[in-house]
Amino acid sequence: MTGTDARFVGIAGLVEAPSVAVVVDVMRAFTVAAWTFAQGAEKIVLAESLDDARALKTRHPDWVALKDGPPAEGFDLVNSPGVLRAADLRGRTVVQKTTAGTVGALAVKDAALVLCAGCVVAEATARLLRTRGHGSVTFVVTGEDGQADEDLACAEYIARRSNGAEVDASPFLRRAAESPAATELAEGVRQGTHPHDVALCLELDRFPFAMVAAVEDSLMVLRPRTVPAQPDAPVT
Length: 236
Ligand SMILES: O=C(O)[C@H](CS(=O)(=O)O)OP(=O)(O)O
Ligand SMILES: [Mg+2]
Description:
Elements: E1 5-9, E2 20-24, H1 29-38, E3 43-46, H2 50-59, E4 64-67, E5 77-78, H3 81-84, E6 93-97, H4 101-107, E7 113-117, H5 122-132, E8 136-141, H6 149-162, H7 170-177, H8 180-186, H9 197-201, E9 209-216, E10 219-226
Parallel strand pairs: 1-8, 2-7, 2-8, 3-6, 4-5, 4-6
Antiparallel strand pairs: 3-10, 7-9, 9-10
The structure holds the ligand O=C(O)[C@H](CS(=O)(=O)O)OP(=O)(O)O and magnesium ion.
The site of magnesium ion has 8 residues, from loops.
């Protein structure tokens, strides 16, 4: 492969399953997912609906159910990295349902490779794309019908890094910091928040792993995948 041929689409713009999809949700689903793994979770089941999430929790009482918005009966956690980083999730399975991120990942469940990403796993995601040598990558910009600038900026940054280009991250992070989503989180418009959420969502490369989603026993399951630093080394 000589480089990534990137296209950027909103969820509604997905007409057919791409071969390789990078689903981006900076604020907050995939920042939360990364923190979930950092806190020890084994896997995340991406739920199709709130009812599905509740049903999974009922069937597996030891699983941890998480949704966006305010705390709700039947759910253990909210979609907030500031809240998540205080949780002990060692060995746990987490069920996640959010408005944008999880919907985007489920929309590309038939793709050959699905990565879920935010700023906190940007370089690991780009490295995985480089090491696997895929030529054509569809970046799913999950927020605001594909217009969310925090997601688009992150997607554009990962696309450039996946080609091995030296990229100054600051303008991309500035766009994310100045996005409507960041303002809504900072001003308390969104619910189920923590004061550090925006800052945590903007921590570039906080984690060394990428996140790969795949269908397992008819559920869409997200797992961390550590990617070797050397561009040509095999993926673990
Ligand atoms: O939790 C979030 O930040 C959003 C939901 S909302 O915009 O606050 O209602 O969900 P996400 O899927 O993480 O973008
Ligand atoms: Mg979002």
